Amino acid sequence: MRKIYPSCLFVTPLLILALCGTRLNAQETKLAKDTLPAIGTTSALGQVNGITIAATVQSPSAEETPLQIVCVFEYEEGDIYKSPPALPPALNGLVHIDRQLNGLITELRKSGKFKGHALETLLLSPPPGTIPAKKLLLIGLGNKADFKPDLMVSVGNTGMREALRLGVSSYAHASDLKDGGLDSPTGLIATNVIKGAVEAYQTELFLKQKKYSNLAPVKRITLLAGPAFYTITAKAVSAYIKTLSN
Predict the structure, then answer these.
(1) How many degrees, rounded to 5, is the angle at CA 132 between CA 175 and CA 218?
(2) Taking the CB of residue 224, how many other CB atoms lie within 10 A of it?
């Protein structure tokens, strides 16, 4: 029997905006129905070095991928479950994936087994019946109060290098800053992730040219975004990719 993932799959556009605290008049209500993308909406944003960069409206708890990357801050008691500042549970990808893993992410963070220091990593192999991703990579973001968007360049770099080490041909990335309770600049965060990933991949291409790498090509990176953040993610990353071809 196909497993149903209780993430944001059944959240309507109007509920999304209501949970985010947005008040709408009648005209705006109709616009919200017409414009917020549905779960599963995806688009290819461009190609860099043979890698297709895509954006998808999806929770990391439901994305089928060889490698799923999620990011977490250093632990604060109940942090991802406190709304506000974290996104409401119905929209919170970290809450979804933590619940699908029977609270494992919270347990790891709360116990100090994974502290979430900046660029700290932990690779998990989720058992069948939890999440569809074959591998799950946690990347730490450090102390929330000290966060700077430039860190996401290094996060993107770290994610790509782990993907190359594992030899996967594609992976999905969820930055999860808003899930963790930080009101972050969505477009800049997504762009920095891709910038770091591209830089890491170009280094590997250089090493292959010098015969110091047995590169297994990465063909696709998928950025996961909630319905309210999909369009700005797609526009920002598309604009960045265009600068690379100029």
Answers:
(1) 60
(2) 27
pTM of the model: 0.88
CA angle 197, 200, 202 (to 5 degrees): 105
Q: By the 8 A CB rule, do 65 and 133 touch?
A: yes
Residue 72 phi, psi dihedral angles, 5° rounding? -135, 145
Q: For tokens 């994610």, name the residue.
A: 159
* CA–CA distance, 238 with 246 (Å, rounded to integer): 13
Report helix angle 186-209 to 151-166, nearest 10. 40
Give the model confidence (pLDDT) of 94-120 as tens digits.
999 999 999 999 999 999 999 999 999
CB atoms within 10 A of CB 122: 16
- The pLDDT tens digits for 211-236 are 999 999 999 999 999 999 999 999 99
Q: What number of CA atoms fall less than 13 Å from residue 202's CA on the CB side? A: 10
Residue 56 amino acid letter: T
